Amino acid sequence: MNNPTPAIVAQSAVRPLPRAALLVLCVSYVIAGFVGRTVWKNDDITAFGYMLSLAQGQSSWLNPLILGMPPETDGLLPYWLGASAILAAPGWISAEMAARMPFAMLLVLTLLSTWYAVYHLARGPQAQPVAFAFGGEAQPTDYARAMADGGLLALIACLGLAQLSHEVTAYLTQLSCAAMVFYAIAGTPYRTLGPALGLVAGLAGLVLSGAPSVAVLFGLGGALLCACEPHDDDAARRRGMAWAIAILLVTGTVAALAWQLGLWRWRLVWPGDGGKEWQSLGRLLLWFTWPTWPLALWTLWRWRRQLTSRQLHRHLVLPLWFVAVAVISTLFTVPHDRALLIGLPALATLAAFALPTLRRSVAALIDWFTLLFFTGVALFVWVIWIAMQTGFPAKPAANVARLAPGFEPSFSLLAFAVAVLATLAWGWLVHWRAGRHRAAIWKSLVLPAGGAALGYLLLMTLWMPLLDFARSYAPQMQKLTALTGQQDCVEVQALTRGQITALQFHGGLQVHPASSPPRCPWLVTDAVRAGMEAAPLPEHWTQVASINRPADKNDNLLLYRRADLVEPSR
Asked: What is the pLDDT of residues 245-266, one digit of tens each?
Protein backbone atom coordinates (compact mmCIF):
# COMPACT_ATOMS: atom_id res chain seq x y z
CA MET A 1 0.00 0.00 0.00
CA ASN A 2 1.33 3.42 -1.00
CA ASN A 3 1.70 6.01 1.73
CA PRO A 4 0.10 9.36 0.88
CA THR A 5 2.52 11.87 -0.59
CA PRO A 6 3.33 14.93 1.56
CA ALA A 7 3.33 17.18 -1.53
CA ILE A 8 0.28 19.44 -1.75
CA VAL A 9 0.58 21.59 -4.87
CA ALA A 10 -2.06 23.50 -6.80
CA GLN A 11 -1.91 24.06 -10.53
CA SER A 12 -1.30 27.77 -9.96
CA ALA A 13 2.01 26.96 -8.22
CA VAL A 14 3.64 25.08 -11.08
CA ARG A 15 3.99 27.77 -13.69
CA PRO A 16 7.46 27.42 -15.20
CA LEU A 17 10.30 29.78 -14.51
CA PRO A 18 10.54 32.20 -17.47
CA ARG A 19 12.86 30.53 -19.98
CA ALA A 20 14.69 33.74 -20.86
CA ALA A 21 15.52 34.43 -17.22
CA LEU A 22 16.66 30.84 -16.64
CA LEU A 23 18.80 30.94 -19.78
CA VAL A 24 20.48 34.21 -18.77
CA LEU A 25 21.20 32.81 -15.31
CA CYS A 26 22.76 29.63 -16.68
CA VAL A 27 24.80 31.37 -19.39
CA SER A 28 26.12 33.94 -16.93
CA TYR A 29 27.09 31.23 -14.48
CA VAL A 30 28.86 29.14 -17.12
CA ILE A 31 30.76 31.99 -18.77
CA ALA A 32 31.97 33.51 -15.49
CA GLY A 33 35.24 31.79 -14.66
CA PHE A 34 35.88 30.33 -18.10
CA VAL A 35 36.41 33.66 -19.88
CA GLY A 36 38.84 36.43 -19.08
CA ARG A 37 41.28 34.72 -16.72
CA THR A 38 44.61 32.96 -16.91
CA VAL A 39 45.31 29.46 -15.63
CA TRP A 40 45.54 29.20 -11.85
CA LYS A 41 47.58 27.00 -9.56
CA ASN A 42 47.58 24.10 -8.78
CA ASP A 43 45.25 21.56 -10.41
CA ASP A 44 44.13 23.93 -13.16
CA ILE A 45 47.59 24.68 -14.56
CA THR A 46 48.79 21.11 -14.02
CA ALA A 47 45.98 19.65 -16.12
CA PHE A 48 46.55 22.37 -18.72
CA GLY A 49 50.22 21.38 -18.85
CA TYR A 50 49.36 17.81 -19.84
CA MET A 51 46.98 19.11 -22.50
CA LEU A 52 49.75 21.27 -23.95
CA SER A 53 52.13 18.32 -23.86
CA LEU A 54 49.71 16.22 -25.94
CA ALA A 55 48.84 19.05 -28.33
CA GLN A 56 52.51 19.85 -28.98
CA GLY A 57 53.43 16.20 -29.53
CA GLN A 58 55.73 16.03 -26.51
CA SER A 59 54.16 12.83 -25.15
CA SER A 60 51.92 9.95 -26.16
CA TRP A 61 48.15 10.31 -26.02
CA LEU A 62 47.99 7.08 -24.03
CA ASN A 63 50.73 8.21 -21.66
CA PRO A 64 50.71 11.99 -21.11
CA LEU A 65 53.86 13.30 -19.46
CA ILE A 66 55.30 16.58 -18.25
CA LEU A 67 59.07 16.32 -18.38
CA GLY A 68 58.79 12.57 -17.93
CA MET A 69 56.32 12.78 -15.03
CA PRO A 70 52.88 11.14 -15.40
CA PRO A 71 49.74 12.73 -13.92
CA GLU A 72 49.13 12.32 -10.20
CA THR A 73 45.47 11.50 -10.94
CA ASP A 74 44.23 8.75 -13.24
CA GLY A 75 42.11 9.32 -16.29
CA LEU A 76 42.89 10.35 -19.85
CA LEU A 77 39.60 11.92 -20.93
CA PRO A 78 40.17 15.49 -19.65
CA TYR A 79 43.59 15.68 -21.30
CA TRP A 80 42.20 14.34 -24.57
CA LEU A 81 39.42 16.91 -24.53
CA GLY A 82 41.70 19.85 -23.82
CA ALA A 83 44.42 18.81 -26.27
CA SER A 84 41.90 18.17 -29.04
CA ALA A 85 40.36 21.60 -28.50
CA ILE A 86 43.80 23.26 -28.61
CA LEU A 87 44.60 21.53 -31.90
CA ALA A 88 41.22 22.34 -33.44
CA ALA A 89 41.06 25.99 -32.35
CA PRO A 90 41.94 28.77 -34.83
CA GLY A 91 45.12 30.73 -34.27
CA TRP A 92 43.37 33.78 -32.82
CA ILE A 93 42.11 31.75 -29.83
CA SER A 94 44.69 31.31 -27.07
CA ALA A 95 45.62 27.83 -25.93
CA GLU A 96 44.14 28.27 -22.43
CA MET A 97 40.86 29.57 -23.84
CA ALA A 98 40.66 26.74 -26.36
CA ALA A 99 41.28 24.17 -23.63
CA ARG A 100 38.39 25.56 -21.58
CA MET A 101 35.77 25.29 -24.34
CA PRO A 102 34.99 21.56 -23.98
CA PHE A 103 34.86 21.96 -20.21
CA ALA A 104 32.37 24.81 -20.54
CA MET A 105 30.25 22.43 -22.60
CA LEU A 106 30.61 19.81 -19.87
CA LEU A 107 29.23 22.27 -17.33
CA VAL A 108 26.31 23.01 -19.66
CA LEU A 109 25.75 19.26 -19.99
CA THR A 110 25.76 18.95 -16.21
CA LEU A 111 23.03 21.58 -15.87
CA LEU A 112 20.93 19.99 -18.63
CA SER A 113 21.32 16.47 -17.22
CA THR A 114 20.28 17.63 -13.77
CA TRP A 115 17.19 19.40 -15.13
CA TYR A 116 16.02 16.36 -17.08
CA ALA A 117 16.82 13.98 -14.22
CA VAL A 118 14.62 15.94 -11.82
CA TYR A 119 11.95 16.25 -14.51
CA HIS A 120 11.75 12.48 -15.05
CA LEU A 121 11.85 11.67 -11.34
CA ALA A 122 9.07 14.18 -10.61
CA ARG A 123 6.90 12.62 -13.35
CA GLY A 124 6.70 9.35 -11.45
CA PRO A 125 3.35 8.54 -9.87
CA GLN A 126 4.90 8.18 -6.40
CA ALA A 127 6.32 11.72 -6.59
CA GLN A 128 3.09 13.39 -7.66
CA PRO A 129 1.23 15.71 -5.29
CA VAL A 130 -2.01 14.83 -3.54
CA ALA A 131 -5.12 14.85 -5.73
CA PHE A 132 -7.69 17.38 -4.56
CA ALA A 133 -11.27 16.34 -3.92
CA PHE A 134 -12.65 18.85 -6.43
CA GLY A 135 -9.69 19.06 -8.79
CA GLY A 136 -7.18 21.86 -9.24
CA GLU A 137 -4.08 19.90 -8.22
CA ALA A 138 -0.93 20.33 -10.30
CA GLN A 139 -0.86 18.43 -13.58
CA PRO A 140 1.95 15.84 -13.82
CA THR A 141 3.90 17.45 -16.68
CA ASP A 142 3.59 20.98 -15.32
CA TYR A 143 4.55 19.79 -11.85
CA ALA A 144 7.61 17.94 -13.18
CA ARG A 145 8.75 20.98 -15.18
CA ALA A 146 8.46 23.29 -12.19
CA MET A 147 10.30 20.80 -9.98
CA ALA A 148 13.08 20.54 -12.59
CA ASP A 149 13.44 24.32 -12.53
CA GLY A 150 13.80 24.13 -8.76
CA GLY A 151 16.40 21.37 -8.98
CA LEU A 152 18.48 23.36 -11.45
CA LEU A 153 18.31 26.43 -9.21
CA ALA A 154 19.40 24.32 -6.25
CA LEU A 155 22.43 23.05 -8.16
CA ILE A 156 23.53 26.55 -9.18
CA ALA A 157 23.07 27.71 -5.59
CA CYS A 158 25.62 25.18 -4.24
CA LEU A 159 28.62 27.12 -3.00
CA GLY A 160 31.06 24.31 -3.76
CA LEU A 161 30.12 24.13 -7.43
CA ALA A 162 31.46 27.52 -8.53
CA GLN A 163 35.25 27.21 -8.65
CA LEU A 164 35.68 23.47 -9.25
CA SER A 165 33.19 23.44 -12.13
CA HIS A 166 35.23 26.10 -13.95
CA GLU A 167 38.58 24.31 -13.93
CA VAL A 168 39.96 22.14 -16.74
CA THR A 169 40.43 19.07 -14.54
CA ALA A 170 39.21 15.50 -14.32
CA TYR A 171 36.83 16.49 -11.55
CA LEU A 172 34.60 18.46 -13.91
CA THR A 173 34.49 15.53 -16.34
CA GLN A 174 33.55 13.27 -13.41
CA LEU A 175 30.80 15.68 -12.39
CA SER A 176 29.37 15.85 -15.90
CA CYS A 177 29.55 12.09 -16.42
CA ALA A 178 27.94 11.44 -13.03
CA ALA A 179 25.11 13.82 -13.97
CA MET A 180 24.64 11.95 -17.26
CA VAL A 181 24.38 8.60 -15.47
CA PHE A 182 21.96 10.14 -12.98
CA TYR A 183 19.79 11.41 -15.84
CA ALA A 184 20.00 8.09 -17.67
CA ILE A 185 18.73 6.02 -14.75
CA ALA A 186 16.07 8.59 -13.89
CA GLY A 187 14.74 8.55 -17.45
CA THR A 188 14.56 4.79 -18.00
CA PRO A 189 10.76 4.52 -17.49
CA TYR A 190 10.03 7.17 -20.13
CA ARG A 191 12.80 7.27 -22.76
CA THR A 192 15.15 4.82 -24.47
CA LEU A 193 17.66 6.55 -26.75
CA GLY A 194 18.58 9.48 -24.48
CA PRO A 195 19.09 7.38 -21.33
CA ALA A 196 21.00 4.75 -23.31
CA LEU A 197 23.43 7.32 -24.68
CA GLY A 198 23.74 9.00 -21.29
CA LEU A 199 24.40 5.68 -19.57
CA VAL A 200 27.16 4.57 -21.95
CA ALA A 201 28.80 7.99 -22.20
CA GLY A 202 28.50 8.66 -18.48
CA LEU A 203 29.87 5.35 -17.20
CA ALA A 204 32.65 5.24 -19.80
CA GLY A 205 33.48 8.88 -19.07
CA LEU A 206 33.75 8.19 -15.33
CA VAL A 207 36.19 5.37 -16.02
CA LEU A 208 38.28 7.47 -18.41
CA SER A 209 38.24 10.31 -15.87
CA GLY A 210 39.79 8.13 -13.18
CA ALA A 211 36.69 7.09 -11.22
CA PRO A 212 36.00 3.44 -12.15
CA SER A 213 34.81 2.43 -8.68
CA VAL A 214 32.27 5.27 -8.68
CA ALA A 215 31.06 4.19 -12.13
CA VAL A 216 30.56 0.61 -10.97
CA LEU A 217 28.71 1.66 -7.80
CA PHE A 218 26.42 3.97 -9.77
CA GLY A 219 25.73 1.22 -12.30
CA LEU A 220 25.01 -1.47 -9.72
CA GLY A 221 22.70 0.81 -7.76
CA GLY A 222 20.81 1.82 -10.90
CA ALA A 223 20.41 -1.79 -12.04
CA LEU A 224 19.10 -2.83 -8.63
CA LEU A 225 16.60 0.03 -8.63
CA CYS A 226 15.29 -0.81 -12.12
CA ALA A 227 14.92 -4.48 -11.16
CA CYS A 228 13.22 -3.99 -7.79
CA GLU A 229 11.01 -0.92 -8.13
CA PRO A 230 7.23 -1.52 -8.32
CA HIS A 231 5.42 -1.36 -11.67
CA ASP A 232 1.79 -0.90 -12.60
CA ASP A 233 1.68 -3.46 -15.42
CA ASP A 234 3.64 -6.28 -17.04
CA ALA A 235 4.98 -4.12 -19.83
CA ALA A 236 6.54 -1.68 -17.37
CA ARG A 237 7.93 -4.59 -15.37
CA ARG A 238 9.57 -6.11 -18.44
CA ARG A 239 10.97 -2.71 -19.38
CA GLY A 240 12.47 -2.32 -15.92
CA MET A 241 14.13 -5.76 -16.07
CA ALA A 242 15.47 -5.04 -19.55
CA TRP A 243 17.02 -1.81 -18.30
CA ALA A 244 18.50 -3.59 -15.28
CA ILE A 245 20.20 -6.13 -17.55
CA ALA A 246 21.40 -3.39 -19.91
CA ILE A 247 22.87 -1.35 -17.05
CA LEU A 248 24.68 -4.41 -15.70
CA LEU A 249 26.13 -5.16 -19.13
CA VAL A 250 27.37 -1.61 -19.60
CA THR A 251 28.75 -1.55 -16.05
CA GLY A 252 30.63 -4.79 -16.63
CA THR A 253 32.02 -3.49 -19.91
CA VAL A 254 33.36 -0.27 -18.41
CA ALA A 255 34.80 -2.21 -15.46
CA ALA A 256 36.70 -4.38 -17.95
CA LEU A 257 37.85 -1.23 -19.74
CA ALA A 258 39.20 0.14 -16.48
CA TRP A 259 41.04 -3.14 -15.91
CA GLN A 260 42.62 -3.04 -19.35
CA LEU A 261 43.77 0.56 -18.85
CA GLY A 262 45.15 -0.17 -15.40
CA LEU A 263 42.84 2.30 -13.67
CA TRP A 264 41.87 0.09 -10.73
CA ARG A 265 43.93 1.63 -7.97
CA TRP A 266 42.62 1.87 -4.43
CA ARG A 267 43.47 5.14 -2.71
CA LEU A 268 41.45 4.80 0.47
CA VAL A 269 42.55 7.20 3.19
CA TRP A 270 41.29 6.98 6.75
CA PRO A 271 40.30 10.49 7.89
CA GLY A 272 42.60 10.20 10.89
CA ASP A 273 42.47 9.99 14.62
CA GLY A 274 41.86 12.68 17.20
CA GLY A 275 38.76 14.13 15.56
CA LYS A 276 40.45 17.08 13.83
CA GLU A 277 40.12 15.64 10.34
CA TRP A 278 36.52 14.65 11.01
CA GLN A 279 35.80 18.23 12.05
CA SER A 280 37.27 19.61 8.84
CA LEU A 281 35.23 17.11 6.82
CA GLY A 282 32.12 18.18 8.69
CA ARG A 283 32.79 21.83 7.88
CA LEU A 284 33.36 20.88 4.24
CA LEU A 285 30.02 19.08 4.06
CA LEU A 286 28.27 22.08 5.61
CA TRP A 287 29.58 24.87 3.39
CA PHE A 288 30.31 22.97 0.16
CA THR A 289 26.73 21.74 -0.24
CA TRP A 290 25.00 24.84 1.14
CA PRO A 291 22.05 25.54 0.78
CA THR A 292 20.99 22.13 -0.54
CA TRP A 293 21.79 20.00 2.50
CA PRO A 294 19.18 21.59 4.84
CA LEU A 295 16.54 21.19 2.13
CA ALA A 296 17.67 17.61 1.46
CA LEU A 297 17.30 16.78 5.16
CA TRP A 298 13.86 18.38 5.11
CA THR A 299 12.96 16.16 2.16
CA LEU A 300 14.03 13.03 4.02
CA TRP A 301 11.94 14.06 7.01
CA ARG A 302 8.80 15.02 5.14
CA TRP A 303 8.98 11.96 2.82
CA ARG A 304 10.03 9.56 5.60
CA ARG A 305 6.93 7.38 5.25
CA GLN A 306 7.81 6.71 1.63
CA LEU A 307 11.40 5.89 2.59
CA THR A 308 10.34 3.40 5.25
CA SER A 309 7.69 1.70 3.14
CA ARG A 310 8.26 -1.67 1.50
CA GLN A 311 8.18 -0.20 -1.99
CA LEU A 312 11.07 1.64 -3.57
CA HIS A 313 10.39 5.26 -4.47
CA ARG A 314 12.83 6.09 -7.25
CA HIS A 315 12.60 9.87 -6.78
CA LEU A 316 14.08 9.37 -3.29
CA VAL A 317 16.15 6.19 -3.54
CA LEU A 318 18.07 7.12 -6.71
CA PRO A 319 19.39 10.51 -5.54
CA LEU A 320 20.05 9.07 -2.07
CA TRP A 321 22.27 6.38 -3.59
CA PHE A 322 24.26 8.90 -5.64
CA VAL A 323 24.70 11.18 -2.62
CA ALA A 324 25.77 8.25 -0.45
CA VAL A 325 28.46 7.19 -2.94
CA ALA A 326 29.75 10.78 -3.14
CA VAL A 327 29.85 11.21 0.65
CA ILE A 328 31.65 7.90 1.17
CA SER A 329 34.18 8.89 -1.49
CA THR A 330 34.63 12.21 0.29
CA LEU A 331 35.31 10.56 3.62
CA PHE A 332 37.82 8.00 2.40
CA THR A 333 39.55 9.56 -0.62
CA VAL A 334 41.47 12.76 -1.32
CA PRO A 335 41.02 15.51 -2.29
CA HIS A 336 37.83 15.59 -0.26
CA ASP A 337 36.06 18.55 -1.87
CA ARG A 338 36.53 17.27 -5.40
CA ALA A 339 35.18 13.85 -4.45
CA LEU A 340 32.06 15.51 -3.06
CA LEU A 341 31.48 17.38 -6.31
CA ILE A 342 29.91 14.41 -8.11
CA GLY A 343 27.09 14.24 -5.54
CA LEU A 344 25.81 17.79 -6.07
CA PRO A 345 23.27 17.02 -8.88
CA ALA A 346 21.65 14.30 -6.76
CA LEU A 347 21.72 16.47 -3.65
CA ALA A 348 20.06 19.29 -5.61
CA THR A 349 17.38 16.81 -6.64
CA LEU A 350 16.65 15.92 -3.02
CA ALA A 351 16.51 19.64 -2.23
CA ALA A 352 13.97 20.15 -5.02
CA PHE A 353 11.60 17.63 -3.50
CA ALA A 354 11.51 19.70 -0.33
CA LEU A 355 9.84 22.55 -2.23
CA PRO A 356 6.27 21.18 -2.34
CA THR A 357 6.41 20.51 1.41
CA LEU A 358 7.97 23.73 2.70
CA ARG A 359 6.05 25.76 5.21
CA ARG A 360 5.71 29.47 4.61
CA SER A 361 7.82 30.32 7.66
CA VAL A 362 10.69 28.09 6.46
CA ALA A 363 10.55 29.64 2.99
CA ALA A 364 10.64 33.13 4.51
CA LEU A 365 13.66 32.18 6.64
CA ILE A 366 15.52 30.96 3.55
CA ASP A 367 14.70 34.19 1.72
CA TRP A 368 15.83 36.47 4.52
CA PHE A 369 19.05 34.60 5.18
CA THR A 370 19.90 34.48 1.48
CA LEU A 371 19.07 38.15 1.00
CA LEU A 372 21.31 39.27 3.86
CA PHE A 373 24.17 36.90 3.02
CA PHE A 374 24.52 37.57 -0.70
CA THR A 375 23.78 41.27 -0.41
CA GLY A 376 26.60 41.43 2.13
CA VAL A 377 28.89 39.49 -0.22
CA ALA A 378 28.09 41.88 -3.09
CA LEU A 379 28.74 44.94 -0.92
CA PHE A 380 32.04 43.47 0.25
CA VAL A 381 33.21 42.82 -3.32
CA TRP A 382 32.22 46.32 -4.44
CA VAL A 383 33.86 48.04 -1.45
CA ILE A 384 37.15 46.22 -1.99
CA TRP A 385 37.06 47.03 -5.71
CA ILE A 386 36.41 50.72 -5.03
CA ALA A 387 39.27 50.71 -2.53
CA MET A 388 41.59 49.16 -5.10
CA GLN A 389 40.63 51.76 -7.70
CA THR A 390 40.57 54.90 -5.54
CA GLY A 391 42.45 54.11 -2.32
CA PHE A 392 39.30 54.80 -0.28
CA PRO A 393 38.36 53.32 2.13
CA ALA A 394 41.98 53.29 3.19
CA LYS A 395 41.96 50.14 5.33
CA PRO A 396 40.71 47.73 2.61
CA ALA A 397 43.18 49.27 0.15
CA ALA A 398 46.01 48.73 2.64
CA ASN A 399 44.94 45.12 3.18
CA VAL A 400 45.05 44.44 -0.56
CA ALA A 401 48.50 46.02 -0.81
CA ARG A 402 49.71 43.90 2.12
CA LEU A 403 48.28 40.61 0.84
CA ALA A 404 49.25 41.16 -2.81
CA PRO A 405 52.40 43.32 -2.83
CA GLY A 406 53.21 44.67 -6.25
CA PHE A 407 49.66 44.39 -7.58
CA GLU A 408 48.67 47.26 -9.87
CA PRO A 409 44.87 47.73 -10.17
CA SER A 410 43.39 48.16 -13.64
CA PHE A 411 39.99 49.29 -14.86
CA SER A 412 37.96 47.35 -17.43
CA LEU A 413 34.86 49.03 -18.76
CA LEU A 414 33.38 45.72 -19.90
CA ALA A 415 33.91 44.04 -16.53
CA PHE A 416 32.49 47.09 -14.75
CA ALA A 417 29.40 47.12 -16.99
CA VAL A 418 28.77 43.40 -16.44
CA ALA A 419 29.13 43.82 -12.67
CA VAL A 420 26.70 46.77 -12.65
CA LEU A 421 24.14 44.83 -14.69
CA ALA A 422 24.48 41.80 -12.39
CA THR A 423 24.00 43.98 -9.32
CA LEU A 424 20.94 45.68 -10.83
CA ALA A 425 19.53 42.25 -11.73
CA TRP A 426 19.97 41.17 -8.11
CA GLY A 427 18.08 44.24 -6.93
CA TRP A 428 15.26 43.51 -9.36
CA LEU A 429 15.18 39.86 -8.24
CA VAL A 430 14.91 40.85 -4.58
CA HIS A 431 12.13 43.31 -5.45
CA TRP A 432 10.29 40.60 -7.40
CA ARG A 433 10.63 38.08 -4.59
CA ALA A 434 9.34 40.58 -2.01
CA GLY A 435 6.40 41.59 -4.17
CA ARG A 436 2.92 40.18 -4.17
CA HIS A 437 2.59 37.66 -6.96
CA ARG A 438 1.22 34.21 -7.47
CA ALA A 439 3.14 31.55 -5.59
CA ALA A 440 5.53 29.41 -7.63
CA ILE A 441 6.94 26.18 -6.29
CA TRP A 442 10.51 27.15 -7.21
CA LYS A 443 10.36 30.61 -5.62
CA SER A 444 12.33 29.66 -2.49
CA LEU A 445 15.41 28.81 -4.57
CA VAL A 446 15.41 31.90 -6.78
CA LEU A 447 17.35 34.05 -4.33
CA PRO A 448 19.92 31.35 -3.41
CA ALA A 449 20.67 30.61 -7.06
CA GLY A 450 20.65 34.27 -8.08
CA GLY A 451 22.84 35.22 -5.13
CA ALA A 452 25.40 32.50 -5.84
CA ALA A 453 25.57 33.53 -9.49
CA LEU A 454 25.86 37.21 -8.49
CA GLY A 455 28.70 36.62 -6.04
CA TYR A 456 30.67 34.49 -8.48
CA LEU A 457 30.08 36.89 -11.37
CA LEU A 458 31.26 39.88 -9.32
CA LEU A 459 34.41 38.03 -8.30
CA MET A 460 35.13 37.01 -11.90
CA THR A 461 34.72 40.57 -13.18
CA LEU A 462 35.68 43.16 -10.56
CA TRP A 463 38.29 41.03 -8.81
CA MET A 464 39.65 39.19 -11.83
CA PRO A 465 42.96 41.15 -12.11
CA LEU A 466 43.59 40.64 -8.39
CA LEU A 467 42.71 36.93 -8.53
CA ASP A 468 44.94 36.41 -11.57
CA PHE A 469 47.77 38.13 -9.74
CA ALA A 470 47.28 36.14 -6.55
CA ARG A 471 46.34 32.72 -7.91
CA SER A 472 48.56 32.34 -10.98
CA TYR A 473 52.28 31.87 -11.55
CA ALA A 474 52.40 34.68 -14.13
CA PRO A 475 53.86 37.44 -11.86
CA GLN A 476 56.53 35.08 -10.57
CA MET A 477 57.47 34.01 -14.10
CA GLN A 478 57.73 37.64 -15.18
CA LYS A 479 60.28 38.26 -12.42
CA LEU A 480 62.22 35.17 -13.42
CA THR A 481 62.37 35.90 -17.16
CA ALA A 482 63.46 39.47 -16.39
CA LEU A 483 66.60 37.96 -14.84
CA THR A 484 67.27 35.28 -17.44
CA GLY A 485 66.96 37.77 -20.30
CA GLN A 486 66.76 36.34 -23.80
CA GLN A 487 67.95 32.89 -22.73
CA ASP A 488 65.15 30.38 -23.33
CA CYS A 489 66.83 27.24 -22.02
CA VAL A 490 66.52 26.37 -18.33
CA GLU A 491 67.02 23.23 -16.34
CA VAL A 492 64.71 22.39 -13.46
CA GLN A 493 64.98 20.33 -10.32
CA ALA A 494 62.46 19.61 -7.55
CA LEU A 495 59.65 21.55 -9.26
CA THR A 496 55.99 20.57 -9.33
CA ARG A 497 54.19 19.83 -12.56
CA GLY A 498 52.35 23.14 -12.28
CA GLN A 499 55.60 25.10 -11.86
CA ILE A 500 57.14 23.40 -14.89
CA THR A 501 54.06 24.26 -16.95
CA ALA A 502 54.26 27.86 -15.74
CA LEU A 503 57.88 28.11 -16.93
CA GLN A 504 56.84 26.82 -20.34
CA PHE A 505 53.57 28.70 -20.74
CA HIS A 506 54.02 31.97 -18.85
CA GLY A 507 57.79 32.20 -19.23
CA GLY A 508 58.08 30.87 -22.78
CA LEU A 509 61.13 28.83 -21.73
CA GLN A 510 62.45 25.52 -22.98
CA VAL A 511 62.56 23.33 -19.90
CA HIS A 512 64.90 20.36 -19.38
CA PRO A 513 65.60 18.17 -16.36
CA ALA A 514 68.77 18.98 -14.44
CA SER A 515 71.80 17.18 -15.84
CA SER A 516 75.50 16.86 -15.17
CA PRO A 517 77.23 18.45 -16.94
CA PRO A 518 74.52 21.10 -17.45
CA ARG A 519 73.16 21.85 -20.91
CA CYS A 520 71.51 25.21 -20.12
CA PRO A 521 72.85 28.42 -18.59
CA TRP A 522 70.13 28.53 -15.90
CA LEU A 523 68.71 26.20 -13.28
CA VAL A 524 65.42 26.73 -11.42
CA THR A 525 64.45 24.87 -8.28
CA ASP A 526 61.89 25.22 -5.52
CA ALA A 527 63.24 26.56 -2.25
CA VAL A 528 61.25 24.13 -0.08
CA ARG A 529 61.33 21.01 -2.25
CA ALA A 530 65.05 21.43 -2.97
CA GLY A 531 65.77 20.75 0.70
CA MET A 532 63.98 17.40 0.45
CA GLU A 533 65.59 16.31 -2.82
CA ALA A 534 69.07 16.38 -4.29
CA ALA A 535 70.52 19.91 -4.21
CA PRO A 536 72.29 21.44 -7.23
CA LEU A 537 75.96 20.55 -7.51
CA PRO A 538 77.96 23.52 -6.18
CA GLU A 539 80.71 23.12 -8.78
CA HIS A 540 78.20 23.62 -11.60
CA TRP A 541 75.82 26.30 -10.31
CA THR A 542 75.85 29.59 -8.47
CA GLN A 543 72.68 31.01 -6.91
CA VAL A 544 71.82 34.45 -8.25
CA ALA A 545 68.27 35.12 -6.98
CA SER A 546 65.34 33.96 -4.89
CA ILE A 547 62.05 34.77 -6.60
CA ASN A 548 58.86 34.63 -4.54
CA ARG A 549 55.30 34.50 -5.74
CA PRO A 550 53.92 37.91 -4.64
CA ALA A 551 50.79 36.55 -2.94
CA ASP A 552 52.68 33.81 -1.06
CA LYS A 553 55.99 34.60 0.62
CA ASN A 554 56.59 30.89 1.23
CA ASP A 555 56.42 30.04 -2.49
CA ASN A 556 59.99 30.79 -3.63
CA LEU A 557 61.95 29.72 -6.68
CA LEU A 558 65.73 29.66 -6.53
CA LEU A 559 67.47 30.76 -9.73
CA TYR A 560 70.99 29.47 -10.39
CA ARG A 561 73.37 30.38 -13.16
CA ARG A 562 75.98 28.03 -14.51
CA ALA A 563 79.20 28.64 -12.61
CA ASP A 564 81.38 29.09 -15.68
CA LEU A 565 79.10 31.88 -16.91
CA VAL A 566 79.09 33.92 -13.69
CA GLU A 567 81.31 36.97 -13.90
CA PRO A 568 83.85 37.10 -11.05
CA SER A 569 83.21 39.83 -8.52
CA ARG A 570 85.64 42.72 -8.48
From this structure: 999 999 999 999 999 888 887 6
Residues with Cβ within 8 Å of 311's Cβ and at least 6 positions away in sequence, in order, are 2, 126, 229, 230
Beta-carbon-side half-sphere exposure of residue 63 (alpha carbons within 13 Å): 6
Contact status, residue 467 vs residue 405, Cβ threshold 8 Å: no
In a domain, 3, yes or no: no
Q: Give whole-number Cα distances, 115 to 143, 150, 352, 417, 493, in Å.
A: 13, 9, 11, 30, 48
Residues 6 or more apart whose Cβ sits within 8 Å of residue 135: none
> How far, in Å, are 35, 209, 211, 243, 483 from residue 223 at the CA level?
40, 22, 19, 7, 61
Per-residue CA distances from 561 to 24, 92, 520, 569 (Å):
53, 36, 9, 14
Same domain, 426 and 533: no
Q: Which domain holds residue 408?
A: 364-471
Nearest alpha-carbon partner for 526 in 516, 536, 517, 518 = 536
The 10s digit of each residue's pLDDT in 281-298 is: 888 999 999 999 999 999
Q: What is the C-alpha separation between 12 and 2, in angstroms, rounded?
A: 26
204 and 154 housed in the same domain: yes
Instruction: Say how far apart CA 83 and CA 85 lie, in whole Å.
Output: 5
Residue 4 counted as domain residue:
no
If asked whether residues 289 and 276 sit together in one domain, one would say yes
Clarify whether residues 399 and 301 are in a common domain.
no
Q: Give the number of domains in the chain.
A: 3
Of 437, 417, 413, the closest CA to residue 425 belongs to 417
Looking at the structure, tell me whether residues 412 and 276 fall in a common domain: no
Beta partners for 522?
Answer: 490, 561
Per residue in 76-102, pLDDT (tens digit) is 999 999 999 999 999 999 999 999 999
Of 303, 326, 357, which residue sits at a domain end?
A: 357
pLDDT level of residue 530 (50, 70, 90 thresholds): low
SS3 559: strand
